[in-house]
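Discussion board: Methods & Data

I've been asked by a reviewer to show the raw model output for two of the constructs in my manuscript, not just the figures. I'm not sure how much to include, so I'm pasting the format here to get opinions. Each protein appears as its amino acid sequence followed by a line of discrete structure tokens. Is this the kind of thing reviewers expect to see in a supplement, or should I convert it first? Here is construct A:
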Amino acid sequence: MEGFDSGDTAWMLASTALVLFMTPGLAFFYGGMVRSKSVLNMMMMSLSSMGLVGVLWVLYGYSIAFGNDVGGGLLGNPFEAWGLKGLFVGTYSADVAESSYVLSGSIPALVFVGFQATFAIITVALISGAVADRMKFGAWMLFAGLWATIVYFPVAHWVFAFDSDTVTGGWIANQLKAIDFAGGTAVHINAGVAALALAIVVGKRKGWPREPMRPHNLTLVMLGAGILWFGWFGFNAGSALGANGTAAFAMINTIVATCAAMLGWLVTERIRDGKATSLGAASGIVAGLVGITPSCSSVSPLGAILLGAICGVLCALAVGLKFRFGYDDSLDVVGVHLVGGLAGTILVGFLADPGSPAAVAGLFYGGGVDQLWRQVVGALAVLFYSGILTFVIALIVKAIFGGRIRLSEEDETTGIDESEHAETSYDFSSHRGLPGNAGTPRPDAATVGAQSVVAGKEG
């Protein structure tokens, strides 16, 4: 079929699966960072985002993000592709060569729909780390649905919807021409500032910052970081929308920037605290991935190393800002995603290499400030739009729940897993021995009662 490329399609199917896998990876990453009494809820907040946002995306989210513009580059037509109408109409036969179906470039449009759905899902899930331990699950679900609809879908239109012969896209992509290859603004700045606004409205955890609230399972954190790095190749290289040289370029930059960021974070820890930690290594990995996301098509591999190192150091320092300014960002979404997203987006204006696929020269390559101001405007536009509207959405959700958007102090002390889900992440009951019988399973109450009755009869 004319225009169809099976290699591009195969790569994009794989990339879609890789990016979707990132959300369970995020669940492990976040789940290991909280206390044991909160791990199930933390993972549920990520996984529930998959269910909720996936449905909204098919109903109207894709249409808002990639439908024909109806508002000066701000919004796509939400009814144009409602329920994906018009995107799956085709003539199918046993012979693929004789089939015809709607294309997006060289791939079926539905593959592109699925790929972009995974971006929407993980962006919403990222926010949850800022309100770990304390936000009611029902309130989170309502917030997630409203935020995806009012904030993410329009911003995705601004950044990812490029003009074509049949569709008019968003203003950042087409009028401003800021470079954001895979979502530094739409995903990371967007989620990072939303996390800050939501954390302020929800309030601080009971006992923070006086009481230590250490990660309960660093093994899960390291596993999650590894899965995120693996999936991020679909995130960045997949954004080339084909199996081509741009994908290869984005892949190598994703590798080296992340390596450099991990080293930058560990060196910063070593100098500041005297120790390099596994949590620091995992966080440095994520900081590098965040930083290279907008720039992986526009900086050289050497530029990617420099960018990654800068992001690793900046994010390692930024996670301490919450103690200085008094906002309880539980899992450092602001310090890593907001700061890393801002740094990666703005550094394009300095480090963009005209020999890269983006073919744009930054300040250090003789391009002056032309690209720099575009990057700054794009980053600040998303920051203010998302920050203000997230604050409003959070207040609305709080009002709907009668001002009780978070757990009571008693429930928070007991643990959000039990109070919200009636479950615990770890069941140690079968491993507890009776006094003086280490290693012997503790009988339950019914067994003890039955033994007492038998003993009484025998007596």
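Construct B, same format:
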Amino acid sequence: MSEQANIIDLLAGTPPELAELRRARPDAVANAELSFTALFEPGDEKDFPQAWRYAVAVFIAGVSGQDEAARFYRDLLEDELDGRAGELGLDEAIGQGLSAGPYDTGDFVVFDLGEGPQGRALSAAFDFAHLLTFHPKDATPAAIGHLQSAGWSDDAIVSLAQLISFVAFQLRVAHGLRVLSGAVEWASPSEIVRAAGVADPSWEPGPRTLIPEVVAPARFVNHSLGWKPWLADLPKDEFTQEHKDALIQPQRIDSEYFRLLARDPAALKARTLTDIDIFYNTEGGLGRAERELAATVVSRLNGCEYCASVHQARSKEEGGDPEAIDRLLEEGVGADLGSPLWNALQKAAAALTQTPFEFSAEHVRVLREEGLDDLALIDLVNSAAFFNWANRLMLTLGEPDVPKRFR
């Protein structure tokens, strides 16, 4: 796929004028493409074969109701397996897993793709992908132990989490672009119901699973939080120059989160550069406070206390209304944020976070009436989509911790 001009534009059918406007955020565009390369065409597959990577993406797109993306990844899978993709049981798994989210809390849908190392590994990967797609808030160390017991190495678990989370971002940007171009005639996905599952999948932490001592936040807070991983991070003395370059900012080597993501340095580097351009490229488009508002809305809806705590503060620092942001944290998505524009931004970011995606032409119409141009709308789509990537990593690789000074 490396010769493809741009995969998100391909999935979206982005018209030329919108594709050109999207490139006002050139590093975001380029590094979303590099994220695909890092996660689906790595120089070293390690113990996460390329066919498994495509299969997980087919599954995510299928259960998310994104048929065009499912066909795209299935074609890649068929090429990789010489037309034998049907042997994996993907259609049955997608039919079982098609659902609607994010769940407030919920059942776990588990899959059986057969015995043997591949069957057990892919079953566990699909279990994890369904959890991340529909209710990442319900992740626990047991989900990590489940992958480890199915044969997944710690490096491969980090790559799997990045891949699932990246696809969540990729599909939402593509959908947003289709809506902006007028190519989507939106219809309510209300006919899709939550898939039946089990309350307790009987997963358990494994010998390599970390169980950190934390004080979990009792609610969404407007102060800083810590974060502790459920997987061992990469020790500082094992960092190569590639790992250090992937951090972008050298001081991040002191963060357990970034040391953990450094287990897949190519994916970390591309993701970080995507993030920076989406949120800090202020040449036109949506204001910084509003981009950070979108990040906070998505984090509040997905249940990520850590991300919400960081980005509510950044929105305030950039001139956002502190009282409105505190109401969002306290009351949840749907709170009155005090202005028609901010309420419209909240509704649009939340709609793009729902699975199946509910972002529609009506959201675009209201936002345009509030004065947003197409570049600002692209910034909103990018910001909301990116935090559907970030939240899934934070929620499923570790947990927040209240610092001692706030206990």
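Answer (T.O., handling editor elsewhere):
This is acceptable in a supplement if you add a one-line summary per construct. For B, something like: The two ends are 50 Å apart (CA to CA).
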